[in-house]
Structure of Outer membrane lipoprotein-sorting protein:
Amino acid sequence: MKSNIQDSKQNYTQTMGKRLLFIMALFLFGFSIQAQDKKAKDLLDQVTAKVKSYNNITIDFKYSLNNAKENINQDSKGNVTMKGNQYVLNFMGVTKIFDGQKTYTIVPEDEEITISTVNEKDDNAITPSKMLTFFNSGYKYSMDILQNVKGRKIQYIKLVPVSAKDQRKEVLLGIDVQTKHIYNLIEVGKKGTKTTLTVNSFKTNQPLSKNQFTFAGSKYPNYYINKLD
């Protein structure tokens, strides 16, 4: 039986995965929604065009959760490697592997592996294409401020959720003007919570193992396997 700590970790990792896949959806699939702000649309198109030629992308990131009112200030680090619709995410001691069909959540601390088949119709499904669909129907966007961050010019684009039920007030997507790469993603909640994902390292076309996105059960002989379907 999963512990509350493990459930918290897996939920946190799933949320993290959604944000990362949201970014990668912007990278890999482009934008098909009608332009609401031509300058913002042009910049996003440049980002898409720049990255579409990459065979794979590896990101080291920092994830921060802050709420001054609740006195919450948490930082975590992780990394993700993506190729097409496959990925390997390492975050908070948990590894998630998605081979294009199934997700394998590996928790060494509890020696447990959860295996589930991804259903595109599931709102919680973490895939680039699913995140793209949500983005296309869920936001309005426009140009925001231009900041100088350690000598780098970061242009922000503001995304405002259309649904009044969305707990986020706005999302700010920071883009490095020179490289046309995503620098960070900031979500501002209606109740004062701010989460920030900052890209510390962005590598492309790395030499990957042919089994990079393949789950090998033989590596975990003593683990409990929890198959959800």
